[in-house]
Amino acid sequence: MKVIPLTFYQRFSLAGAIGNFPVPKVKDAAMFVRLLEKVRLTEAERRGGKFRQEGQNVSWTLPDAGFGTKSIELEDIEAESLAQAIEALENIRVLDVEWLLKISEQLRAEEPEEQAA
Length: 117
Prior knowledge:
Elements: E1 2-6, H1 8-19, H2 30-39, H3 43-48, E2 50-54, E3 57-61, E4 70-74, H4 76-87, H5 94-108
Antiparallel strand pairs: 1-4, 2-3
Helix pairs in contact: 1-2, 4-5
């Protein structure tokens, strides 16, 4: 099990990436549907920020700095699938690469082995 903290912007961006991730068959989409359900913003979160679009740039004014931040619990197979989806992204903004790589590393980090008592 992995627990990954994600900000409003990271959740919004990952939901779009997961939703657009190509899968070869419908049955292969089940994992990504589960991931999307865990990552996507709630209706209240979408309404809570002021959305603004200027050309291809999108931004929000959020009620406070931590608004929409959530720790996402992922099974190991979900974490690996999300890491693969992140690594397969194309046409990425350079500004997003740092946080995407950090999340991918967290998803693939080995759990410390529990010490025997």
